[in-house]
Design goal:
By secondary structure, the protein is an alpha/beta fold. It has 2 domains: 12-161, 3-Layer(aba) Sandwich (Rossmann fold); 173-268, Rossmann fold, CATH 3.40.50. The chain is 44% helix and 20% strand. It has helices spanning 21-37, 50-54, 61-95, 112-123, 145-150, 184-196, 214-232, 250-260, 275-279, 282-291; strands spanning 12-16, 40-47, 102-109, 127-131, 158-161, 173-178, 201-209, 240-246, 265-269, 296-299. The protein has a 10-stranded mixed sheet, with helices on both faces. Helix 5 links the parallel strand 4 (127-131) and strand 5 (158-161). Helix 1 (21-37) packs across helix 3 (61-95). The protein is elongated, with a radius of gyration of 21 Å.
Length: 300
């Protein structure tokens, strides 16, 4: 008997921003997802706190007083820029005829990575959507420092969005889930289906193996068969196909599959020894995130 999936319960989407083009595109993705789920978007910006350095000079009272004024000015500028950024998003939302958006604006003084963790604890978002890079970052880097830290947050799915990523909602969205047969894959795919259920989408669950052993390949096929049976119990009418692909170059095989099957969204877990962890090699991850330009959904 077919089991019915629970309806997705996305209420809050956190989008850390630095006002870069990467942040803007991440916000566009958040707007569309928010419109579908009727979820609140939390726009969060962390700005530099000059008072932290001043604390190391306890006798420099005048210096600290001046810094207090500087701090106030920095904060006011951050809030003003956040308001302008929000206006831009509202214009985009109206242009795309999206449902009315609910946006909460938050700013904090401090290091982005630390402050984002605090905001996650405070608001408990179901999803974080972030650009892969920030202002002035070299695109030759694998990921920006903020994105690198955010994907390590336990229990919160993260959607990584490149500056040029596009997710077309006017057609069936093709999702690739790359599995290494870890136990976490089962929970991740179920979460993925709940998030995506408001879309017309399909899933290709793919395992890439470098082994040439006949026994190893047979074992992979058996594991994939078990996984396919499990997922089809609650996938309903969602098209789901499973593949075991032999390739000595895992990322090359992944890239080839993405292009051949016109994949729109790549997803996987971020666990040590799992696929994404192994892909965090400069040349490989750069190819995945920048050559394909597809958004990448990371589950912890």
């Amino acid at each position: 008997m077919e089991q019915k999936r629970e309806k997705g319960t996305i209420q809050r989407i956190l989008v850390p921003i630095d006002f870069s083009d990467y942040s803007l595109n991440a916000c566009y993705f958040a707007l569309h997802l928010s419109s579908r789920h009727d979820a609140e978007i939390i726009l969060f910006h962390a700005f530099f706190n000059p008072m932290v350095d001043a604390m190391t000079f306890p006798d420099a009272f005048t210096y600290q007083s001046n810094l207090a004024e500087v701090f106030h000015e920095i904060e006011q500028n951050a809030r003003k820029e956040l308001d302008n950024f929000t206006d831009k998003l509202e214009r985009y939302s109206n242009l795309k005829n999206l449902e009315p958006i609910k946006i909460r604006k938050e700013v904090a003084a401090g290091q982005p990575g630390d402050e984002i963790r605090n905001i996650v604890k405070a608001f408990k978002p179901e999803i974080i959507i972030t650009g892969t890079h920030g202002h002035g970052k070299k695109t030759s880097e694998v990921l920006g420092s903020v994105a690198s830290r955010v994907i390590d947050y336990e229990g919160v799915p993260v959607l990584l969005v490149t500056r040029d990523a596009v997710l077309r909602e006017d057609k069936q969205i093709k999702v690739l889930y790359a599995t290494n047969f870890d136990n976490s894959d089962y929970k991740a795919v179920e979460s993925l289906m709940n998030i995506m259920e408001i879309y017309n989408f399909s899933i290709d669950c793919v395992h890439f193996t470098t082994g040439t052993s006949r026994n190893e390949h047979a074992g992979d096929l058996e594991k994939m068969s078990e996984m396919e049976k499990h997922f089809k119990k609650f996938s309903g009418s969602t098209p789901l196909n499973c593949h075991v692909i032999e390739s000595r170059d895992i990322l090359g095989g992944l890239d080839e599959f993405v292009e051949k099957h016109d994949i729109d969204l790549i997803s996987m877990t971020h666990k040590k020894r799992n696929l994404f962890y192994r892909l965090l090699n400069p040349s490989l991850a750069k190819k995945l995130l920048f050559k394909t330009k597809r958004p990448v959904f990371i589950f912890n």
